[in-house]
């Protein structure tokens, strides 16, 4: 027991010091380490395996939706960045620029991509000629760089990994529809793969992507009640098409500009998982993305037959397609329990001489920390069923917390009280920038997304008639 306590005490208390809890968890479970350049992170194998599972699941969904993968260069001519006025203004403070290479000063400086609308717009301008070329729907998995002053692993780092999808359509209606379709794809992904409930909706003008006509986002509630933007989709209208001359000859022979849209989700999703499901013992990973879904811990592993039985079980579970680890190291079972609990493995199986004799296995669920017993016969089916049940329970638990923590406010004081209490606050808004800025100043909260319908009477700030009902929250 002493060893157990010592182990757990390595992580800060989740309720009283959530920021330190987060830092302890990401470092001690070996998801990441800090890179030598300030603001960069090294994604270690255990963290990268989560990203690979996210990629695999999301990529399959994009492909099923008809999107193809491509790859565009890391370096973008600076002249591209300045072609769309809002875009350059929005990204200027964050862009890293290459001025020298090959021992010489470059004639034109090169931007390290903060996002690829410009270079992809340029190539679309080259590739799109006729209505027959449309729609053109591409995605790339890559790294981007945005110079940040304050950074936190997965949440905000200078370099991060993501996917960025870019499409061009003949009509604005189609491009807008795709913007909503991709938002829905993200929402469904969050629910089914990350077991994470989200709020989706349109962003305010202030919060939209630089250069977009409309931005939509999905926001997830973290353990401390703050919001984490977990994916965004943007309708660009003809802004980028005009800047990069993306023109096509339509069926009637006339020359028209296309309509573009883009969408992105990043390694932030790993931060979202950690802060949605984690608890006092550490990580709690959703089974669909957990690098290890089941860990087998032998009890009295030196006794005859124990390791053999564990290995047979491991083989059986692996053959059923599960990600399994048999921990036959020299550490004590208690040490192993703590280690794998902290690392968030959804299901632990303990197998000792008595279990084997009785034809059962002891099963520990990471989400509830409850132990039970399952028959060894048809173990794979039983474990699969348990993992599905656990995924569902994780979602339900997070959904309940989010629903309980959405409150309404009719005044700035109520709004402040709401966000101080770790809630999302639903309130009316007149639509003006001054009132949105006032909320930020008064309550350090921002408009996360607008509700689909306006159900409020008055603006929470000025009292004028409400035009949009907004979800306000403090955000990462
Ligand atoms: Zn107002």
Would you give an account of this structure?
- The protein has 476 residues and is an alpha+beta fold.
- The protein has 3 domains: 5-277, BirA Bifunctional Protein, domain 2 (2-Layer Sandwich); 294-386, Anticodon-binding domain (Rossmann fold, 3-Layer(aba) Sandwich), CATH 3.40.50.800; 406-473, C-terminal domain of ProRS (Translation Initiation Factor IF3, 2-Layer Sandwich).
- 36% of the residues lie in helices and 27% in strands.
- The protein has 15 helices and 23 strands.
- It has helices at 2-8, 18-28, 45-64, 78-81, 85-91, 117-127, 172-192, 239-243, 268-277, 306-319, 333-342, 353-358, 379-404, 412-420, 433-443; strands at residues 32-34, 41-43, 68-69, 75-77, 96-101, 104-112, 136-145, 159-169, 199-202, 214-221, 227-237, 247-249, 255-257, 259-266, 294-298, 324-326, 347-351, 360-365, 370-375, 406-408, 424-429, 446-450, 468-473.
- The strands form 6 sheets. It has a 7-stranded mixed sheet with strand order 3-7-8-14-11-10-9, with helices on both faces.
- Helix 14 links the parallel strand 20 (406-408) and strand 21.
- Helix 1 runs parallel beside helix 11.
- The longest helix is centred in the last third of the chain and has 26 residues, at 379-404.
- It is globular.
- Residues 1-5 have low confidence and may be disordered.
């Amino acid at each position: 027991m002493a060893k157990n306590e010592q182990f757990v005490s390595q992580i800060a208390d989740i309720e009283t010091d959530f920021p330190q809890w987060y830092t302890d968890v990401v470092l001690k479970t070996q998801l990441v380490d800090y890179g030598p350049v300030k603001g960069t992170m090294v994604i270690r194998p255990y963290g990268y395996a989560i990203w690979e599972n996210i990629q695999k699941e999301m990529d399959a969904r994009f492909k099923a939706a008809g999107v193809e993968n491509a790859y565009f260069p890391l370096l973008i001519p600076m002249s591209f960045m300045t072609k769309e006025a809002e875009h350059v203004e929005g990204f200027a403070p964050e862009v890293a620029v290459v001025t020298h290479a090959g021992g010489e000063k470059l004639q034109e400086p090169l931007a390290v991509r903060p996002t690829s609308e410009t270079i992809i717009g340029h190539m679309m301008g080259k590739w799109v000629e006729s209505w027959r070329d449309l729609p053109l729907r591409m995605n790339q998995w890559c790294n981007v760089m945005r110079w940040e002053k304050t950074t936190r692993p997965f949440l905000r780092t200078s370099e991060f990994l993501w996917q960025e999808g870019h499409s061009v359509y003949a009509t604005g209606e189609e491009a807008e529809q795709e913007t909503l379709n991709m938002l829905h794809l993200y929402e469904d992904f969050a629910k089914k793969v990350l077991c994470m409930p989200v709020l989706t909706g349109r962003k305010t003008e202030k919060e939209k992507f630089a250069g977009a006509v409309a931005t939509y986002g999905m926001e997830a509630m973290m353990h401390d009640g703050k919001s984490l933007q977990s994916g965004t989709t943007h309708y660009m209208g003809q802004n980028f098409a005009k800047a990069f001359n993306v023109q096509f000859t339509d069926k009637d022979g006339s020359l028209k500009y296309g309509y573009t849209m883009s969408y992105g989700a990043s390694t932030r999703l790993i931060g979202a998982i950690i802060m949605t499901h984690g608890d006092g013992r550490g990580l709690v990973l959703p089974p669909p993305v957990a690098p290890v879904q089941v860990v087998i811990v032998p009890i009295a592993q030196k006794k005859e037959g124990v390791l053999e039985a564990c290995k047979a079980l491991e083989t059986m579970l692996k053959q059923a397609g599960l990600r399994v680890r048999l921990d036959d190291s020299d550490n004590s079972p208690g040490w192993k329990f703590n280690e794998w609990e902290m690392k968030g493995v959804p299901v632990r199986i303990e197998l000792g001489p008595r279990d084997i004799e009785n034809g059962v296995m002891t099963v520990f669920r990471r989400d509830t920390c409850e132990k039970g017993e399952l028959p060894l016969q048809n173990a794979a089916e039983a474990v699969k069923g348990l993992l599905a049940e656990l995924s569902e329970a994780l979602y339900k638990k997070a959904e309940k917390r989010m629903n309980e923590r959405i409150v309404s406010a009719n005044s700035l004081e109520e709004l402040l009280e709401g966000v101080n209490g770790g809630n999302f606050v639903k309130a009316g808004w007149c639509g003006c920038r001054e009132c949105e800025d006032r909320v930020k100043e008064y309550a350090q909260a921002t408009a996360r997304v607008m509700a689909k319908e306006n159900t409020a009477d008055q603006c929470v700030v000025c009292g004028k008639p409400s035009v949009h009902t907004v979800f306000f929250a403090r955000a990462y």
